[in-house]
Amino acid sequence: MTYKIALNFEDGVTRFIDCKPTETVADAAYRQKINVPIDCRDGACGACKCSCESGSFRLGDYIEDAMSEAEAAAGMVLTCQMYPQSDCVVRVPASSEVCKTRQADITATIADLRQLSDSTISLTLEGEAVGKLGFLPGQYANLTVPGTPQHRAYSYSSMPSNKRVSFLIRNVPGGLMSGFLREQAKLGDSLKLAGPLGSFYLRDIKRPVLMLAGGTGLAPFLAMLDKIVANGGSPFPVHLIYGVNKDCDLVELERLQAFAAQLPNFTYALVVVDPESAQPKKGYVTQHIEPAQLNDGEVDIYLCGPPPMVEAVAQNLRERAIQPASFHYEKFAASV
User: Fold this and answer.
1) Is the pTM here over 0.85, yes or no?
2) How far apart are CA 131 and CA 177, in angstroms?
3) What is the C-alpha to C-alpha distance for residues 67 and 293, in angstroms, rounded to an integer?
4) Which domain holds residue 64?
């Protein structure tokens, strides 16, 4: 038996390693040629101190000078004494470059390409390497624009399945990537992607979850919901509020309906800015966050949207005097 350990470095790069329950995370990383910070290997120096953000483990022997009881209670670990008992996510306080590793680069082919609306393009890539992709639901990849040295960042909108993975691409007028996909790309074309990247990802669900999506910011939540389904559901309520400018911007509604049918604790609401919208909820996402969904602060909030939306939600929480248990967000701006 082995467990998957996601090493999330401070520069946003994530690398996955296999770790046996009988070996330490540090030993497993070195076995797979990733030089996580370490010095003594005896739990005495504290050089390998990291934070475990998800998963269960047991710790071997270490001294107070290396890690205090308060640090251990806060989820800190010494990777030289950390033996996993499940899949884990470990935040490493060093860059991937310092640890002699880097983001993975793969080449995939376009398996499906559809314009879901005037504002959104759906891209599905496939290949042997895609089937072996490791990433945390919510993370993103850098896709290279064919024929150029430039890349654009997009969140995965699905977990890998049948050697395929998908993205939601904002259709930007004059956009380099969206222009290529709209005007030149065809099925079977190759695309290069690098990643995974980012600290925006789903943690263990230990309390109610509120997801807030703006436009193509829906993408990471679709991957998160994929993962929740694969894990057998959530023991706590999960509510998604998905906001767009116009009715025609609403996409992937069939997938949301399917998630609601598969997950008894999942609900969602659609919010449209346009006052002429056919949707009952109009305006902005902040206008439709109910007090019950904030649960007096005992809630994990995930937000993906443009910078003004992130700032508006943060201001709304301050006005309500709500301090959520955790608040994870990903800002994105359209790139041409």
Assistant:
1) yes
2) 24
3) 37
4) 3-92
